[in-house]
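User: Hey, quick favor. My workstation is busy. Could you predict this chain's structure for me?
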Amino acid sequence: MTVSREKLFCFGLGYSAQVLAHRLAALGWTVAGTSREGGGAGTFPFDRDHPLADPAGRMAGTTHLLLSVPPDKDGDPVFARHGADIAKLTDLRWLGYLSTTGVYGDHGGGWVDEATPAAADDQLNQRSRWRVAAEQAWLDWGRRLGRPMHIFRLAGIYGPGRNALDNLRLGKARRIVKPGHVFSRIHVDDLATVLQASMARPDPGAIYNVCDDEAAPPQDVIAHAAELLGQRPPPAIAFDEADLSPMAASFYRDNKRVRNDRIRQELGVQLQYPNYRVGLAALLKG
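Assistant: No problem, here it is.
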């Protein structure tokens, strides 16, 4: 049996990174990474105040590196603490940074693609401003050092254990209505497919929007999930009366439709879940 020589290291083994990690481990890859607390084989503690212990040893042999730790007011913690260590990895063939479509800001329901500039600082919420700065830091780093850096701007992620069906079952779903407002989404399995496709076709400096084919009003997703469960949907709540937390309200600040042509044309990706209806139906069966 041939043993794979590929090694994935994930700064931030969270919901999305774990799906990719499990796929690659099944193909014989070595997988390691970080979480806030660490724990488990190959998972080490890391945050801004607790840098990765023995980074050279932990990341030795890494061929592919995924960055999914969010930035904070002081910038990207991985870049600050371990950018120099990553630069020393001699086997590295691919790096991916998980960002957000929030960097485009509000377009009044209009379309954006990867050629659309990031919005000006005063048009972005705090987290999106941090993302723009982190993207630029990693892209500049990659160009300066000749490293294969890729940026993935993610729409709202859903999948097993994180979806409208589960929220309804738990009594946590709210059908908030802001007329004319739409969100883009991506199933976590399709996200993993995009990352694998990029690994197979590295294009240093590339930026990819990762979303499905249909931006849709969030209340429609809740209503459809309720229909699938044979439930009455929760009552509609006007956005102005929803009493949302500042973070929750910030998701309604931006209104846009995101194009995903590049992942299809340049990476050859065919989405398994091209819209929320297909995705929710599969989650219900699963």
